[in-house]
Design goal:
Structural class: alpha/beta
Order of helices and strands: EHHEHEHEEEEEEEHHHHEEHEEH
Helix content: 25-40%
Number of domains: 2
CATH topology of the largest domain: Aspartate Aminotransferase, domain 2
Number of strands: 14
Largest sheet: 7 strands, mixed
Bound molecules: pyridoxal-5'-phosphate
CATH architecture of the largest domain: 3-Layer(aba) Sandwich
Radius of gyration: 21 Å
CATH superfamily of the largest domain: Type I PLP-dependent aspartate aminotransferase-like (Major domain)
Length: about 375
Amino acid sequence: MAERVYNFAAGPAALPLPALEEAREHFLVLPGAGASVMEISHRSKEFLAIIEQAQQNFRTLLNIPDNYRVLFLQGGASLQFIMAPMNFLQNSGKPADYVLTGSWGNKAMKEAKRVGNVRVAWEGKAEKYVRVPKQDELDLDPGAAYVHFTSNETIEGVEFFEEPDTGSVPLFCDASSDILSRPIDVSKYGILYAGAQKNVGPSGVAVVIISDEMLARVPENLPAMLDYKNMAENASLYNTPPTFTIYMVMLVTKWLIEEIGGLDKMYAINKEKAKMLYDVIDGSGGFYKGHSQVDCRSIMNVTFRLPSEELEAAFIKEAGANGLASLKGHRSVGGCRASIYNAVPVEGVKALSDFMKAFMSRNG
Ligand SMILES: *Cc1c(COP(=O)(O)O)cnc(C)c1O
């Protein structure tokens, strides 16, 4: 078999080897089912056990209160950008507040504008999205339908380590690139959603964690596939869900529980990995320049520049030749980005930090 590289892709991204191995072992026959998980009914008892286990794993990992549902919906995080406003902004007679710390928050806001009145509660664009706001910088409307923020801006590498305090206004969060990277207090959120393909599994579903209180506010007559209440009442099985993706999500979350030992442990590992790279950047005398302000730099997406675009291109190419893959920054911002999600092992990050030091001493 061809060798697996250390994969720093931003998404779809690295998956934990034990989850892939278990899927491979049961690829042809899911035990008890007589066929592959892809070949059985989404209403079979074997698949129902898988989707229920996946939900239960989220509950265990994030300590999700009983008055929240865990849904697996299609359309990725991008569909949540419009689904949430269609359920809670459209015809509400209220505005929605958006906190903009990078590219994805802007995309979310753009969709919301199609169906309602949107306010910018804070915007980091003039500073080139290098940080998150302090609480007293937020211009929040106490009468807003909700406040939306992006806990980790995947492209810029800017992360919130504490949620904005929105008082009694429901807090909505796009946590696509940092969900399950550390413990959070789910009770602070009205909706927390994430495309699976960064930290949770393969592409194909968005995980949506939503409170019963929000579900009770869903208006009548929304299109069935865009109606959170309909999806919750049908336990994410209103139509045929992406069964293989959900199976993989179950295996990835099982790995987090059984092999990593939960999110406190995962967080400690993630901080250790991020520190290895930021230490090289900080100690490089300016050869590597981190994008974000130190107190908001992401522990999932480490974004940095080199002294020239030529050196950046050489860095990415040489790293690739050394089994360190997908370090190119997003096309909209350039530079380099190492996505070090849960599944990227410490040894992979160590190999990258060693490579960064060696590259600098050859080119610095
Ligand atoms: C990747 C990403 C998205 C888009 O997710 P899709 O599942 O492709 O729609 C949205 N928000 C954030 C923060 C992301 O990282």
